[in-house]
What we know:
Elements: E1 2-6, H1 11-27, E2 32-38, E3 51-57, H2 59-62, H3 69-82, E4 86-92, H4 97-105, E5 107-113, E6 129-131, H5 139-151, E7 175-179, H6 191-203, E8 207-212, H7 215-228, E9 233-236, H8 240-248, E10 252-256, H9 259-265, E11 271-275, H10 280-283, E12 290-294, H11 327-344
Parallel strand pairs: 1-2, 1-4, 2-3, 4-5, 5-6, 7-8, 7-10, 8-9, 10-11, 11-12
Helix pairs in contact: 1-5, 1-9, 6-7, 6-11
Amino acid sequence: MRVLVVKTSSLGDIVHTMPAITDMLAHVPAITCDWLVEESFARLPTLHPALNRIISVALRRWRHAPLSVHTIQEIKNFVKTLNANNYDYIIDFQGLAKSAILAYIARGVRVGLDQYSAREGWVSFSYHRQIAVSKQLHAIQRNRLLAAEALAYPCPKTSPDYGLQVTPIVDARPYLVFIPFTSWPSKHWQLHNWVELIKLAHQHDYATKIVCYNEAERKLASTMLELANAGGSLLSQLDLVAVANWLASAAGIVGVDTGVMHLGAAFAVPTVALYGATSNQLTGILGLRRLNLTSSADCAPCHQRYCRKIGSNGNRTELGCPAMVTPHQVWASLSYILQLNAIKTLP
């Protein structure tokens, strides 16, 4: 059986689809599975050994110059590549117009969420088969159910297995990875909180590594380390495979609700996730030695990009949710699951 998985973006959504791939391999042993994904995330699926081929698409780049000769030629080449194979099933895990169009271009039986389950319900009419999956379920469970229904096997009740294989990193000291940056200001944890957490890590003899990408993030991360005066280093501008290697080898991870944090949660590493404006009920981290800490604000989760309760005259602010947990609460939670991890690894 040959299957095409359509999940183009974003990072967290791609990570949440990995357990469904593991399920498919376990229940359909003769399966050959390809993945259609946005080019900026194309290296991540290569970490899953069950995948046969990664087909990249450049929608984000093409939209900046859709009528250029170069873009038109790339689109022609992409369509030719996508049409080179006949699939038994094309499973659209995304449920958006862009993913439905891509699924339509491919050759095979198109399967996706029904009009009441998909994010953009009308796209379901482009599928040969529509499957109902409750929107109230966690994203990982929704993906696992969709795959199981599409390929006619019972959905596993086991903990999600992301199936990612990485290269371990050996560092001089046990280290913690902190992930403070995300595109939504309302998801941020305030800078002074990160500084205090870095100090606590240093006091307990852990090195600190901060994931950052653009120049603004690098400056803020450097400021955190300088104010903490506790050493530490930056994991800056690394590709996703390199970031995955560092995350998988960490002693622990603390992060806000962002794609890299969800990637870290895919490994058997003690992880604390911080939720303010968004809900951990639908996208929180799952599994043993993983904890979701949420804001105590009566308006949380607001699902708003900017917090409107702070700042003068209702001005937008980048301070983040004002009622998120304290550094000492985060450290207590991380220490607890670090101890559980240590007990499990005893001979």
